[in-house]
Every structure is written in structure tokens, then in C-alpha cells.
Write a structure and sequence with these properties.
about 180 residues, alpha+beta, Aminopeptidase, 5 helices
């Protein structure tokens, strides 16, 4: 394969767009989560082991200090999601990071995290934390590679998480007033 052919292939790859959730994406997010539920049917996911099931309840959860993002492809199909919840005291919970299987390892999760971190810094969060299950080693690696450190106890809302949950924290160097 020559350079021109490689360039052609690269140009055909989808270019995902990260945007703040609006209701126009609700059906797309629900379809995306249905696809994920099928993919992860027998895998233990999320803070309560419900993964996308739990995330369905939190689609578009937004407030002045919380937000939700979607990644869409060229056809405007939802191919990724991420959310940030305000836990108070300058602490945010990074949640619902899901990316279509065909796009994992291609930067979409990193773009969703970047949007989340930018928002958190804008809102003067001190830290954000993430939670996952022990078997989700790919998520563990992603978190460490992207600036999180493993912690034993979440900085907020510990009662929400079941035993065995693995926690990660990112210091944003900000002070929320």
C-alpha cells in the first residue's frame, strides 16, 4: 500500500464530534446504550454493576455544575458518551464514559475526557473521580494513562458504590469556592 492509498483510508475514517447533550440526541443515546447492553451482557460494569442500564437513568443529567456529552460520527450517530456530576465541595464524578467498540483506542474517549476536564476546570473543580469494577482493566489503564491516580476511597458519595469498586482521582489544581 502506498502513501496515497493510506491517506485515502485515513480520509474515510469517521471524524467524531464532541458536543454537549441536548434532547435531540436522546434517541441516539438510547440506541447506543442498547447496543452496549448487548455487547456487555455478561460483563460487570459501573458503580452498581448496571453499566448502561444505570446510565439510561442519567442521560442528559445537567445543571449549572454538571453536564453530559456525546460523541457523534459523520452520520450524526451517537458513538460515545461521558458525564460529570457535581458532588459538592469542588468534587466531580466522571461517569458514563462509553465508546463504540469500533472506535476504542482511536481517541474518542480521550476527547470526551478532555471536554469533561475543560468543563470541570471552568467550574473550578478541585478534583474529579471515576469508578469502575475490578474486571474493567482497560478502563483502569485508560484512567492512569490520562492523568488519574488510583485511590482507595472515593472523595464523595461513597455510599453510592458497591464493595469492590475501583476508584480513580484526577487533581485539577483548582479551588471551588
Amino acid at each position: 500500500m502506498n502513501t496515497e492509498q493510506r491517506q485515502e483510508i485515513r480520509e474515510e475514517e469517521p471524524k467524531e464530534k464532541i458536543t454537549t447533550y441536548t434532547d435531540e440526541y436522546k434517541e441516539g443515546v438510547l440506541r447506543f446504550y442498547d447496543k452496549l447492553r448487548n455487547e456487555f451482557r455478561d460483563v460487570d460494569l459501573g458503580q452498581s454493576g448496571q453499566g448502561p442500564n444505570k446510565a439510561n437513568q442519567e442521560i442528559g443529567k445537567k445543571s449549572e455544575n454538571s453536564d453530559f456529552w456525546v460523541a457523534t460520527n459523520d452520520e450524526n450517530e451517537v458513538v460515545g458518551t461521558a458525564g460529570l456530576d457535581d458532588c459538592g465541595n469542588g468534587i466531580g464524578y466522571f461517569r458514563s464514559l462509553y465508546v463504540d467498540k469500533s472506535l476504542r483506542g482511536k481517541g474518542v474517549a480521550k476527547e470526551l475526557l478532555s471536554a469533561t476536564v475543560s468543563f470541570a476546570k471552568e467550574k473550578k473543580y478541585k478534583v474529579i473521580f471515576a469508578a469502575t469494577m475490578p474486571k474493567n482493566t482497560g478502563v483502569h489503564k485508560f484512567n492512569i494513562k490520562n492523568g488519574f491516580r488510583k485511590i482507595d476511597v472515593p472523595p464523595a458519595n461513597s455510599e453510592k458504590f458497591r464493595p469492590g469498586t475501583v476508584f480513580f482521582e484526577m487533581d485539577l489544581g483548582e479551588k471551588k469556592e
